[in-house]
């Protein structure tokens, strides 16, 4: 594989500045972090907090967006050998949700803290909103976030909890002048996206929507908005991924193109990877895979409620062979058979390394009684009255918790399998929110990223590393049913094939074809969506693979047979990444010359400091160089 030098440009408040290295790390449920190492100059100590940072790279295909965010910290160090270094720590624009808080006053605090003091504490809170609040509702800076979340969820056509929580995050833009300005000039809300998801509709009926509100109120004193939303999303197996190097999307036909910087997505560790996340042999230099056989459960039980609940079973078991074993035991008990004569371990060819080999490794989890009763009440209230309706609701409850048990068993089975770091030359195409597939002559490994890091040096050297969990070296999942709370567009072996439409609370109807075309780019598909060269009985046939394992083997064979492997890899894994021009146009910024960008997004006071720092760097002999 030919490794090209990577050009890189770093702008602080629109001023091009010298740098030594930039290191970008992305992880779920927290902002992307960029560390910039710069030549040491005293003026760096004068840099303003929230100085706007833009980084662009060129790998031979034109300038593309690498990072947008703000400086949140700086540092200076000297080594025993005399070397000096200064660093800027930056967070992407989702830091506005990390550094905005909701505060909940108890009745005692309400009497102890004067209204004026509360307004001052929350820096610009609207006095009327504070005065009109109900007891135990959160004070600004996000008004009554729990109640507002409930309103937004119920206002959605499909009562979509994920969209409702996303809209709750967007409320931060209206808190006060500071947030209004930041959200407006950076177009932050336009960068946040989720697929509308009516799959979880029944979870937001009746009592269960109040459970989300209760989750907000249960937090200690005050919490970041990001923390409160991510905890609530986790209740339906969702997370927020910050995405630097974003793809562009088009929400409506002929509408403006927008970057997907912040993506709300379900847990997709069993989903077929997108094409951009296939790591061919030429793309990786080293990796580590580890699996602890004894950390993986062989059987799992979910305790879901009171034994006195006539509509619900108390326990739900997984996997299917375990349920079959229990039925065998129950039949033996009813017939008075001596249980000592039974083999009480799971012995089934469909279960990898079953209990005859590993022994019995059980795990158990109990749903809190309050949470169970809320979901139960939700299902009952949506079913209506009458005995038949209750029986139907009871069946729905059983199905729901049985699917939770099956999903939890699989999650626990794979979560302890670590894969990485996978080290490779700079690979901007990787999308950390979705699974990866690594191809090697000894292995085909699927996994879900937990962190992705890119490093670029001023001399053009660049590298990428990705760490993963939920690794599986072959397709061992048979007859898997996607849980009802995950959008069907993420179904493991058919992602990209389902068409659906839903409406946001703003009334805009969006129709997309599958998750990957919507979130990564038009036409972008999974490794299962296209016909591949597949070997059958010594002959090569061209058809769609029937499993992820077959797709992996077919791709490896096509890679080996390709005449120009680099061209094959680049064509297969290409992902549409936001260009520098698109990034500047999105912010209303123009490039006046090679060293400077201009636009209302930049702050004059901060810009003057950066310009003075750059002058000192140039005087000290540090030039802004491009490879």
Tell me the overall shape. globular
| Spatial separation of the terminal alpha carbons | 20 Å
Strand content: 25-35%
* Rg, Cα atoms, Å: 27 Å
Q: Characterize the largest beta sheet: strand count, sense, and whether it forms a barrel.
A: 13 strands, mixed
Taking pLDDT < 50 over at least 5 consecutive residues as the criterion, the unreliable ranges are 105-148, 199-209, 368-384, 492-512
Helix fraction bin: 25-40%
Quickly count the helices.
18
Number of strands: 30
Alpha-beta classification: alpha+beta
Question: How confident is the prediction overall: mean pLDDT?
Answer: 76
Domain module count: 4
What does this structure look like?
This protein is of the alpha+beta class and 627 residues long. The protein has 4 domains: 7-91 and 588-619, no CATH class; 97-266, no CATH class; 275-291 and 417-479 and 525-573, no CATH class; 295-415, no CATH class. It is 30% helix and 26% strand. Strands 1, 2, 3, 4, 5, 6, 7, 16, 17, 21, 22, 23 and 24 form a 13-stranded mixed sheet that branches. A 3-stranded antiparallel sheet has the order 9-8-11. Strands 10-15-12 form a 3-stranded mixed sheet. The two termini are 20 Å apart.
């Amino acid at each position: 594989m030919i490794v090209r030098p990577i050009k890189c440009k770093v702008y602080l408040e629109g001023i091009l500045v010298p740098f030594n290295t930039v290191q970008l790390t992305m992880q779920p449920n927290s902002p992307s972090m960029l560390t910039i190492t710069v030549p040491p100059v005293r003026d760096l100590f004068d840099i303003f907090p929230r100085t706007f940072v833009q980084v662009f790279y060129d790998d031979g295909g034109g300038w593309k967006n690498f990072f947008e965010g703000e400086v949140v910290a700086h540092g200076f160090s000297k080594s025993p050998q005399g070397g000096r270094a200064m660093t800027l720590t930056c967070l992407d624009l989702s830091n506005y949700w990390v550094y905005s808080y909701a505060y909940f006053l108890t009745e005692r605090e309400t009497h102890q803290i004067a209204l004026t003091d509360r307004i001052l504490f929350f820096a610009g809170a609207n006095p009327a909103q504070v005065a009109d609040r109900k007891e135990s509702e959160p004070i600004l800076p996000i008004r009554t976030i729990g109640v507002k979340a409930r309103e937004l969820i119920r206002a959605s056509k499909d009562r979509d909890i994920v969209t409702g929580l996303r809209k709750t995050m967007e409320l931060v833009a209206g808190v006060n002048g500071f947030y209004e300005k930041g959200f407006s000039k950076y177009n932050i809300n336009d960068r946040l996206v989720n697929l509308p998801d009516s799959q979880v509709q029944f979870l937001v009926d009746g009592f269960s929507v109040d459970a989300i509100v209760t989750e907000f109120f249960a937090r200690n004193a005050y919490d970041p908005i990001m923390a409160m939303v991510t905890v609530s999303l986790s209740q339906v197996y969702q997370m927020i991924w910050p995405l630097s190097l974003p793809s562009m999307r088009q929400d409506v036909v002929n509408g403006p193109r927008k970057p997907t910087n912040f993506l709300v997505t379900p847990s997709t560790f069993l989903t077929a990877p997108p094409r951009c996340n296939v790591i061919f042999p030429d793309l990786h230099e080293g990796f580590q895979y580890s699996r602890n056989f004894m950390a993986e459960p062989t059987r799992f039980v979910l305790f879901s409620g009171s034994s006195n609940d006539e509509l619900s079973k108390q326990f739900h078991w997984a996997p299917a062979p375990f349920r079959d074993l229990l039925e065998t035991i129950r039949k033996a008990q009813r017939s008075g058979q001596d249980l000592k004569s039974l083999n009480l371990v799971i012995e089934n060819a469909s279960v990898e390394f079953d209990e005859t080999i590993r022994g019995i490794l059980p795990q158990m989890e109990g749903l809190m009684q309050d949470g169970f009763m809320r979901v139960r009440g939700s299902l009952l209230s949506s079913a209506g009255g009458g005995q038949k309706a209750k029986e139907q609701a009871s069946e729905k409850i059983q199905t729901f918790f049985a699917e939770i048990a099956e999903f939890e068993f699989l999650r626990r089975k794979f979560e302890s399998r670590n894969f990485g770091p996978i080290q490779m030359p700079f690979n901007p195409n990787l999308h950390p929110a979705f699974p990866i597939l690594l191809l090697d002559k000894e292995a085909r490994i699927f996994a879900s990223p937990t962190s992705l890091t890119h490093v670029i040096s001023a001399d053009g050297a660049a590298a990428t590393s990705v760490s993963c969990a939920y690794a599986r070296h072959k397709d061992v999942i048979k007859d898997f049913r996607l849980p009802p709370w995950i959008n069907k567009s993420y179904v493991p072996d058919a992602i990209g094939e389902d068409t659906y439409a839903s409406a946001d609370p703003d009334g805009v109807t969006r129709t997309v074809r599958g998750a990957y075309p919507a979130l990564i780019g038009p036409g972008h598909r999974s490794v299962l969506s296209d016909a591949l060269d597949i070997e059958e009985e010594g002959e090569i046939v061209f058809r769609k693979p029937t499993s992820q394992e077959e797709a992996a083997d077919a791709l490896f064979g096509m890679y080996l047979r390709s005449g120009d492997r680099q061209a094959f890899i680049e064509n297969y894994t290409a992902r549409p990444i936001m260009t520098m021009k698109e990034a500047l146009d999105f912010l209303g910024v123009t490039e006046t010359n090679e060293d400077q960008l201009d636009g209302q997004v930049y702050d004059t006071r901060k810009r003057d400091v950066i310009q003075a720092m750059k002058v000192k760097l140039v005087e000290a002999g540090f030039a802004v160089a491009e490879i």
